[in-house]
Amino acid sequence: xxxxxxxxxxxxxxxxxxxxxxxxxxxxxxxxxxxxxxxxxxxxxxxxxxxxxxxxxxxxxxxxxxxxxxxxxxxxxxxxxxxxxxxxxxxxxxxxxxxxxxxxxxxxxxxxxxxxxxxxxxxxxxxxxxxxxxxxxxxxxxxxxxxxxxxxxxxxxxxxxxxxxxxxxxxxxxxxxxxxxxxxxxxxxxxxxxxxxxxxxxxxxxxxxxxxxxxxxxxxxxxxxxxxxxxxxxxxxxxxxxxxxxxxxxxxxxxxxxxxxxxxxxxxxxxxxxxxxxxxxxxxxxxxxxxxxxxxxxxxxxxxxxxxxxxxxxxxxxxxxxxxxxxxxxxxxxxxxxxxxxxxxxxxxxxxxxxxxxxxxxxxxxxxxxxxxxxxxxxxxxxxxxxxxxxxxxxxxxxxxxxxxxxxxxxxxxxxxxxx
Length: 420
What we know:
It is a single chain. The protein is built from 19 helices and three strands. The protein is mostly helical. It has a three-stranded antiparallel sheet. Strand 1 and strand 2 form a beta hairpin. The mean pLDDT is about 80.
């Protein structure tokens, strides 16, 4: 039997001691801390998607520029333009007396009108309707309609205040169970173009008011109540969610593991919110009456929720990156192996620069002495960049993370102690 080393017995006793300590049940105090930490993290994860919705709601309600930036693309959406042109055509055709149309036209204008109508085998009704719709399409596809759409919403403070909160009036208002936009100014422009094109009887059409439905629901009153609550919660609900998550992580016995769980939990609940927006869209469109254009309603829904979906993707990306960072900085075997590969790659690059005769001078030792503080400053800078970035996207989060990773690599490269 081989001779035992002097320290073998001591090592064996230490191993037995460690095994005994690890086999003991966790103290009650630790179990209570873990339970409270888990409750706080779960509450924070559940509040995270609601905080996203509340922040999105507050943006629409309090920031006119943000709302205009949200709804402005609708003026250029083909589905919205088609629906608006159809509404304008139907409104104008109710005032055109087709039986007396040609009779009221001056003899000199009749050839021009007939040529404009282009009634090649069509009925007069179809020809005039098509002619009016063509002019309506011209108008809604022009900058006239885009300016009307933008100016109407900007003049009303915010559409949220005027429509979803039910206050005020103007071009955007609630009619029964729908939020509508009055197209009267656009109809006036279409009338002018019809007259210029030779359809003189269009000048006799009185002022026509017709509504374009932006949002329809059978429970507008309930929607207004929920909207007000979310508007009030838009400022403090995200803060509460962050405080709950931070409190749960700090209270946990194994904080790194708690941070990974909290980050992944937020990512999962935000992802569920994104799935819920998609599912709700299908139910919302199915519940619309047949008179409402499905493509236009879908375009309006997608546009209004565009920034919310962007926020969802950003939070999912942030949660995954935070969880990955916490895991990579931990004591796990795979995490240590990846860190060794990272340092080995930087060491190889440093060795190559040494062979080329490149030196950092006094900067290297300074960075080496303060590398921990420099690392935390870089992390703080990344956090500030994310917080101050207006409406960060998922790609912005990934870009900030890659920039931070590159900066940390530079600190590691420059700050390593070198041989004299």
